[in-house]
Amino acid sequence: MIDNPRIEDLRRRIQKDPASIAFAQLAEEYRRIGEYLEAIRVCQAGLDQHPAYLSARVTLGRSLLELGRVQEAEAEFERVLGSAPDNVVARRALDDIRSRRGRVDAQAGAPARVNLPAPRDPVLAELEAWIEVIAERRRARHN
Q1: Is 23 buried (19+), middle (13-18) or exposed (0-12) by CB count in 10 A?
Q2: Burial class (CB in 10 A: 0-12, 13-18, 19+), 138
Q3: pLDDT of residue 122
């Protein structure tokens, strides 16, 4: 039994109202303390009743990713972005998955996949610009 008042409160709320959307908060609390299997279980049960609840899908994807279930996580993040293309957490997670896969592919001799940032995500756009500046500096040093 986990000694966490927030988790206990959310559990009680869900017991009183099994159709409550508080399941998403409970799952996120489990994810934060590293209880990924429980977070996944809670998300899946809640999403059976609320399949369009995107923040729960993000929590599910993040928990799956923590357990190395990359393909399942990727599918969840893609589903979120299909409904909410501007969801920054899902976009970053999906870009990270694809970036890692691209590095693995490159190490294996396959061409790396190109992952463009979300068009309206200024943080990723700035990061991309910095990466280009660093790449230009490295090219200049080697020429």
Answers
A1: buried
A2: exposed
A3: 59
